[in-house]
């Protein structure tokens, strides 16, 4: 069975990503890491075709070997395909990943692509299959909710949240996730209560979601609470630069730029920052949204010196100099 799964993904790497399989050689991990990170950075910067090219090169370094890293690269490739407008290519990549191991993530993401094309029946079918693979995945339920809500399917979206609340678990992590869900269902008091219980039980990420709730309010006292919760989250959690980016990006999507900026800047302070380019780019954007153009210009100067191939950034730097 394992050999068959490897053969399926090897075919994916050949037919979908146009990778030449070189027999008898091992993967070049150093080059693969370089191409992969460059591809991720290009993806985050909106350079989708460049991302696809680099991720193809990363897969090419595998030389026919299939592992966790190759699968992860294929997910980035599919995302870049979708965002570049290559819907057919994205669907093909996700389908190949599903054929490889029936992963719920691939079903969910393919469902999102179908939903974006108004193929609702296929989308719901994929969401169902995703949950059949992992019926206790809170992030999956919340992801489906967000996808459907964004598509105007609010009633159907909330049904998935209600299903998630039926997961029969009561550990700190479960309390945190159910707290998030109650907030999405507009039951704020219940949400705050569960998030506080999760913190008491040692779940540090619950600080972030409490901060997110209070950040919705314009009241000064609530903004202070939000700041305190975000601060505790960053101080008490051992976050990686990727996690700082993920949490900051989540806040930025909600137009909470001041809060997101703190996450991006703290991520940049770490000793190991493999996603430095993406963090810098987001921090610059956050500065601009908060009208701190001086800070944006200073960081952009460092950015263009570090990443001179980003032509769009050079143009933006010229603009910032006039502010």
TrEMBL record:
TPR repeat start-end pairs: 104-137
GO BP annotation list: receptor-mediated virion attachment to host cell
SMART domains in the cross-refs: TPR
Annotated GO CC locations: cell outer membrane
Species whose genome carries this gene: Lachnobacterium bovis
InterPro entries recorded: TPR-like_helical_dom_sf, TPR_rpt, Ycf3
Any Pfam family matching the protein: TPR_6
Gene3D superfamilies noted in UniProt: Tetratricopeptide repeat domain (1.25.40.10)
PANTHER family given in the database record: TETRATRICOPEPTIDE REPEAT PROTEIN 6, UDP-N-ACETYLGLUCOSAMINE--PEPTIDE N-ACETYLGLUCOSAMINYLTRANSFERASE SPINDLY-RELATED
Keywords in alphabetical order: Repeat, TPR repeat
Record protein name field: Tetratricopeptide repeat-containing protein
């Amino acid at each position: 069975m394992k050999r068959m799964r490897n053969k399926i993904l090897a075919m994916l790497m050949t037919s979908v990503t146009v990778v030449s399989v070189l027999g008898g050689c091992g993967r070049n991990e150093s080059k693969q890491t370089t191409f992969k990170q460059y591809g991720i950075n290009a993806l985050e910067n909106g350079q989708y075709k460049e991302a696809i090219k680099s991720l193809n090169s990363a897969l090419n370094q595998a030389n026919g070997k299939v592992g966790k890293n190759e699968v992860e690269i294929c997910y980035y490739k599919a995302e870049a395909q979708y965002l570049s407008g290559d819907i057919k290519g994205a669907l093909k990549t996700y389908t190949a990943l599903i054929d490889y191991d029936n992963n719920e993530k691939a079903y969910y993401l393919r469902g999102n692509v179908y939903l974006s094309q108004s193929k609702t029946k296929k989308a719901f079918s994929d969401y169902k299959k995703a949950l059949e693979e992992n019926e206790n995945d809170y992030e999956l339920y919340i992801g489906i909710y967000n996808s459907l809500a964004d598509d105007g399917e609010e009633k159907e979206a909330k049904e998935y949240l209600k299903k998630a609340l039926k997961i029969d678990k009561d550990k700190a992590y479960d309390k945190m996730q159910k707290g998030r869900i109650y907030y999405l269902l507009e039951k704020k008091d219940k949400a705050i209560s569960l998030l506080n219980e999760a913190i008491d039980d040692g779940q540090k990420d619950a600080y972030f979601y409490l901060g997110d709730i209070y950040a919705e309010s314009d009241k000064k006292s609530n903004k202070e609470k939000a700041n305190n919760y975000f601060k505790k989250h960053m101080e008490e959690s051992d976050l990686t630069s990727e996690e700082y980016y993920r949490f900051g990006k989540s806040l930025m999507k909600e137009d909470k730029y001041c809060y997101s900026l703190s996450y991006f800047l703290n991520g940049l302070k770490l000793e190991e920052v493999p996603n430095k380019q993406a963090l810098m780019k987001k921090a610059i954007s956050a500065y601009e949204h908060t009208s701190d153009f001086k800070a944006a210009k200073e960081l952009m100067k460092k950015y263009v010196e570090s990443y001179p191939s980003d032509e769009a950034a050079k143009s933006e730097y010229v603009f910032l100099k006039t502010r």
